[in-house]
Each structure stands twice: as C-alpha cells, then as structure tokens.
Design brief:
Immunoglobulin-like, five-stranded antiparallel β-sheet
C-alpha cells in the first residue's frame, strides 16, 4: 500500500514492502534560469520518476538523457550528479556550456550484485528526478582476471597462436537466499567453444557455485569475435589469431678441408620443426683482399632461404674463392639471428693448369693458378732433356711484377704466368721443365712433362 504525506511541501514519501525513497518534486527544468530542461532522447520531457527496469545480478542497465537549452542564448551547466548505490553518470565534466537551442546528451549506468530495489537522485542546476532500478535474484558470474576474479562482462583471449588453444574460466555462484538453476550455456563464433563439463541445469543452493571454461582456438590469423550465451544474457568474446613464431636458428659451417677454392655449405638448424612458412636471410662478409669469387652458390654475398611447415633446417652453398682471410656468415630468421666465422689459412701457390710450347728458337712456359697470400714472387725454371739431364736453371724474382698485378685485381689470388725463353741452340733437346713458385706460405714445384711444337 502506498501513502502520500505532506504533499504541499514539495516532496512525498513512498512506502512499500521492499523500498523506501524520498522523491523530490522539482520539475525537470532549471528553476533558477528556466532555460535548461531535462528531456529523453526522443525530446519528451523527463518524468519525475524514471525506472531503469529489472536486471540480473552484475548486469548493467543504462538510460540516456538530454539537457536541452531552450533559450536564444548560451547556457552553462555547473553541476550534474547522481547519488545512489549502484548508479553512475557518464557526462561531460562540469561546468560545461550548451549553445543556444542545442543539447548535450549523457548516460546513467546502473550495476549491482545484491537482489533488491535501488534508487538514486539525478540532479543538475535546479533539476532533480528520481531514478529506480531493481536486481532480480540471479546467479553471479565472474571471470578469471590478472588480479583474481572479476564480474563477467565479456572475455578477451588476447593473442593466441594459430593452431593452439587458450581458455578462460568462468565461475557461477548463487549469492542469493533462494534456490536457483544454472541456465543453458552456449558459445557462438568461429574458433570459440565451450569446454566439456559445463554445469548448465545444475541446481544451486544459496552460496553454492560451479564453473566452466570457454576455449579459443583460432584456425586463421586475424581478429575473432563470438558470444557467450547464459540463459537470456549475452557476453562478448574476442581474441586474435596470430601466426606461430618462426623457430630460433643455430648455424654450422660444413667445409672440408678448410681451404681456398673449395665449395661448402652453411647449415641453418632450427630449435624445433617450423610451424609456419617464412623467409630467412643470410649474408657473407670477407675480411681479406678483394675476391669476388667468395660468395654464395646462388651468386653474391646475400642469399635468402624459404622454410615450410615441418622443416628442421635449411642449407646454403658457398665457395671460398682464392684469398686467405676470415669468412663470416650471418643468418636471420624472424627475430632470431646467428653468426659464425671460418678462417681460410694461407697456403703455398696452387697450380690449376700448365703447358709448355716449343718453337725453333724459343720455349714458352704457361702456368695458371692462384696464390691466396698474394705474395708470389720467387720463380725458378729448370729445363731437362729427354734423359732427365738438367739443361738450364733460370731463377727470376718477379715479386714486384706480381705485387702490381694483384694490387689491380679483384679476382683474389688468381694469376696466369707466361714466360718465354729464347734458345740459342737446338730447342728440340728441351723435353720437360719444372717451375718453382714461392710465396710467404711455402713453395710449389710444377712439372711440365712435355712441350708441344708450335
């Protein structure tokens, strides 16, 4: 039963079994200026008593209002507040202005967990109305958060690697004084599922509870959205599918023997089988003389390698050129990098081809090879007859000539030697020749067994 008291004094006391409130009977219009009025979004005057309705425990109810300036001049709102348990206001900070014949919207929010009836006073510069709302006896839902359980408003799974799964726990508790049933629970949205064992249909006595898990397992990259439905309530689900990380790399150099003019491989091993596709980059640096032949087998000193799901390593070929020095390899795959070096040692001259040519008045010796120290200089030519008897030994200090040659070359230690010797007697007696080549690392003797006739 409702009783009305002291009507002539501008307020009334409403009494019933569940709620006692004092309702101020100001009109929804500024009494001091008469130019700002409180209206609903459709422009209708706001009533003196506004009910936000009934909601479940923890559920949010909202109501939109509008302060309208009905005058031809600007108006200022110096205060706007709501006072009452569970109620809040989302509005511009006061003071704020309203242009002539314009309006400012704001929102009232209500959220509470205890069952019962609630009220609050909404005031703004001489305007006051009563707000009411009620919370029905209902279950309370909470989700695991960074700092413990929080009221369930939705579940954000964050970033989850494609092909893996993440789950969030939701607790259900009957915090009322009556027996309640857990309603039907379902999940909608690609990649979102409800884990087995959800307790829907279970009867909960006061202060009893249960829990269930929601799973997000993205099958593709990108943002995912879904909905958790508990009875008549819905909660948004969100998460982002990401590509699996590329594996970490380690690097090994396969070169046997470690020497110039060799081909080898760098072996890029992964710490785990690749879970996705990707591209890596390898670079080669050489700390030595200019040598374009020191490069990857694909050409140049930068190479890329592709990986596919399931790969455990990648292999890139390279060649060591004809110069002594340190070759350094660097590999990057995603955020993982690795670096390894191999030192090519100095070696005595290497001959790759040789020939002798004889004419009636001269012999010519041709030698092709490389000197990875680029210090070649001491030469000796020893000629023999058909019986192996030494006919002549001709030394030659060619260090200055080779130094000038190597200084102008970007081909590493590669050289080609052509030496012509005039013969005063019978050149046909010269049957063979030994060519001795010396550098800073040692001496090489190359036998030219025959001479062809020019």
């Amino acid at each position: 039963m409702t009783k009305r008291l002291d009507q002539g004094r501008g307020f009334q006391v409403l009494r019933d079994r569940s709620l006692t409130v004092a309702a101020l009977f100001f009109a929804a219009v500024s009494s001091s200026f008469g130019q700002v009025v409180l209206v609903l979004p459709d422009g209708a005057p706001a009533p003196g008593l506004y009910d936000l309705g009934a909601v479940d425990s923890g559920q949010i109810a909202t109501a939109r209002f509008r302060l309208r300036n009905t005058s031809a001049g600007a108006a200022t709102v110096s205060s706007l507040s709501v006072a009452g348990v569970g109620f809040g206001v989302n509005a511009p900070s006061t003071p704020f202005g309203i242009p002539a014949l314009d309006a400012v919207d704001f929102t009232i929010n209500f959220q509470a967990t205890g069952a019962g009836s609630y009220s609050a006073a909404l005031r703004a510069d001489g305007i006051a109305i009563l707000l009411t709302a009620s919370v029905l006896p209902s279950l309370t839902y909470r989700a695991d958060g960074a700092n413990g359980l929080v009221l369930l408003t939705g579940l954000d799974f964050g970033a989850v690697v494609r092909g893996t799964a993440a789950q969030r726990r939701v607790t259900v508790r009957n915090e009322t004084s009556v027996i309640l049933n857990i309603p039907a629970i379902s999940v909608q949205g690609e990649g979102f599922t409800l884990a087995a064992g959800a307790p829907f249909g279970q009867i909960l006595q006061p202060q009893q509870g249960g829990e269930f898990n929601v799973v997000f397992s993205p099958l593709a990259t990108g943002a995912g959205q879904g909905t958790l439905v508990i009875g008549g309530r819905t909660f948004p689900l969100s998460g982002t599918g990401t590509e699996p990380p590329l594996p970490k790399v380690s690097l090994a150099i396969d070169l046997q023997p470690v020497a110039s003019a060799r081909q080898g491989n760098i072996v890029i091993r992964f710490d785990a089988p690749a879970q996705t596709t990707g591209m890596g980059t390898a670079t080669l640096e050489f700390g030595g003389s200019a040598d374009a032949a020191i490069a990857f087998a694909s050409g140049g000193r930068t190479a890329t390698f592709a990986i596919a799901s399931g790969d455990t390593q990648a292999v890139l070929g390279f060649q060591t050129g004809t110069s002594a020095g340190t070759i350094t390899f660097s590999v990057q795959l995603g955020q993982s990098t690795e670096r390894q070096s191999v030192a090519i040692p100095a070696a005595k001259p290497t001959v790759t081809a040789s020939a002798g040519v004889r004419s009636s008045g001269a012999v010519e010796v041709r030698v092709t090879g490389f000197d990875n120290t680029r210090t070649l200089g001491g030469l000796v030519f020893t000629f023999y007859d058909g019986a192996g008897k030494t006919l002549a030994s001709v030394p030659d200090d060619a260090a200055a000539d080779f130094a000038r040659f190597f200084a102008a070359s970007d081909l590493g230690g590669v050289f080609q030697l052509r030496a012509i010797f005039p013969v005063g007697g019978d050149a046909s007696q010269i049957s063979s020749c030994d060519v001795t080549l010396a550098n800073s690392a040692g001496t090489t003797i190359q036998r030219i067994a025959t001479f062809s006739i020019l």
